[in-house]
Amino acid sequence: MGGGMDAEMLPIDCVSTILSNTSPSDACRSSMVSSTFRSAAGSDVVWKRFLPADYRDLVSRLVTPLTFSAMKELFLLLCNPVLIDGGKKSFKLDKSSGKISYMLSARELSITWSDEPLCWSWRSVSESRFSEVAELRTTSWLEIHGQIRTQSLSPNTTYGAYLVLKTYDRAYGLDSIPSEISVSVGNRLFNGTAYLTRGDHKKQQMECLFYKNRIEMLRKRVGEGDGRVPCKREDGWMEIELGEFFSGDASEEVKMSLMEVKGHQLKGGLVIEGIEVRPKE
Fold it and tell me: For 107-110, which contacts have Cβ atoms below 8 Å and span 24 or more sequence positions?
């Protein structure tokens, strides 16, 4: 008897149970095995397992309600970023694995002096998924903190935390010394350094010419790090990886930060959209 006939003889409930213990991509591929597998691969039993355990609570927190008639349909809708919690957070599922990603908007972060109009302004930009972003006008103290609990994320998964930003051509003072970045979970801590722009060589040469001794002195105040630089995102923004962490079975608080508070020079021309927490490939 051929393999296809063997597959047809399996009870559909049995096949559904088997597929629910695989991954979304495996379930989709299995639908080509036989008509039994095709029926099982589209069942609510399978796709409910790929959704977060608290998906009902998540759906109730959506800014814009979703219309769906099956669990697979809901899963696919959540594979695109959706706004939750009054538009202050964005949620997304990975289409292949079902892993959870979050983005905390700038309003969800703790940004020192962000309530001072002379230092920061809040405005709407068409290229952001959020209603507001934070624009740095001028400050000598740059400090940004975000936090999220691991119970909101996929268990037993390595995550990266990314500050999502833009800088204007007229930006100044951002990279006189590198910013200090960190991600901590429990007693596990990652520390590093980062630059907020990809580098205007002419501007750097001028700064070095006029402020070389001061810059060298200031950089000695900052701990050792790999000097990360922003990378371009598909949505047109830039991002800097603040660090990575492991989301286990326990519920722990993840703390993420970027600070440049040791140089005391004025800086401006930075736009913060938020911090994204997503599984690492």
Answer: 107/132, 107/134, 108/146, 108/274, 109/134, 109/144, 109/145, 109/146, 109/272, 109/274, 109/275, 110/144, 110/145, 110/146
Would you call 215 helix, strand, or coil by DSSP? Answer: helix
| Dihedral pair phi/psi, residue 51, rounded to 5° | -80, 155
* Contact yes or no for 190/177 (Cβ under 8 A): no
CA distances from 147 to 109, 169, 184, 188, 235 (A): 8, 30, 10, 15, 23
CB 199, CB 280: distance < 8 Å: no
Question: pTM of the entire structure?
Answer: 0.87
Q: How many CA atoms lie within 13 A of 106 on its CB side?
A: 28
Residue 171: per-residue pLDDT = 94
- Give per-residue pLDDT as tens, 202-256: 555 555 544 455 445 555 445 556 789 999 999 999 999 999 999 999 999 999 9
Backbone φ and ψ of 154, nearest 5°? -75, 135
Instruction: Give yes or no for a contact between 162 and 242, defined as CB atoms under 8 angstroms apart.
Output: yes
CA distance 89 to 256: 16
The Cα 274–Cα 138 span in angstroms is: 19
**Amino acid symbol at 43:** S
d(CA 234, CA 121): 25
Checking if the pLDDT of 129 tops 90, the result is yes
Question: How many angstroms separate the CA atoms of 85 and 38, rounded?
Answer: 36
